[in-house]
Amino acid sequence: MQSIADLNAPDIPLLLVGMIVAGSVFVFGVLIFRQSMRVRANERFEKGLCVRCGYDIRASTARCSECGFPIAPPELPLTMALRRKSLMDDWPATDLEPRKPEPDEDRVDVYTSENTESVKLLADQLKARGIVATLRSSSLWTRSTAYDVVGRACKYLTVSVWSGDVERWIEIIRSFKKIAIGGGDKGQ
């Protein structure tokens, strides 16, 4: 086995290039793995399953009865489908005054979808319930690709709320999910 001191000058750049390529492949692999785990957790949450073990938690209230994991949305932003009828029809009787954020609060991306109408309705619903929601366009890598069937990049609209409103947002989003968590209705 040769030491680095025994290598010829042309061998050192090849070794450096090899290390850079190997490191890049590793980092890319980790990013792909994390994204696939995020998508799987969102899909499980959307179906009413525990994001950790996949157990049916629709009848549970606070924790998964199989593994004990808290029933909460997976890593934000969520990407699940929302009930359009609820978004259009379930408005509060009176609009609530928005809470003033604390100086140390940050914006948190909580929901992303390419269905811009649903995202805008969700933002309006949150505002009516006293949560300041902002919208921004973004690109998000979901499923296995960021391109639709004809190869165009997908555009997404993202809802952000103040970090102090995330817990209230979780409670509100449960009423707009296609499959309810905690024993609610399961349909459209």
Question: Can I get a quick summary?
Answer:
With 188 residues, this protein is an alpha+beta fold. It has 4 helices and 3 strands; from the N terminus they run ααβαββα.
Main sheet properties = 3 strands, antiparallel
- Lateral arrangement of strands in the main beta sheet: 1-3-2
Given the C-alpha coordinates, what overall shape results? extended
Q: Which oligomerization state do the chains in this entry correspond to?
A: single chain
Commentary on this structure:
This protein has 188 residues and is α+β, with helices and mostly antiparallel strands. It has one domain. Helices cover 35% and strands 11% of the residues. Strands 1-3-2 form a three-stranded antiparallel beta sheet, covered by helices on one side. The longest helix is centred in the N-terminal third of the chain and has 36 residues. The radius of gyration is 22 Å and the shape is extended.
Task: Give a quick set of tags describing it.
188 residues, extended, three-stranded antiparallel sheet, disordered C terminus, alpha+beta
Topology diagram in text:
Layout lengths: L10 H36 L37 H6 L17 E7 L2 H13 L4 E6 L17 E7 L3 H11 L12
Antiparallel strand pairs: 1-3, 2-3
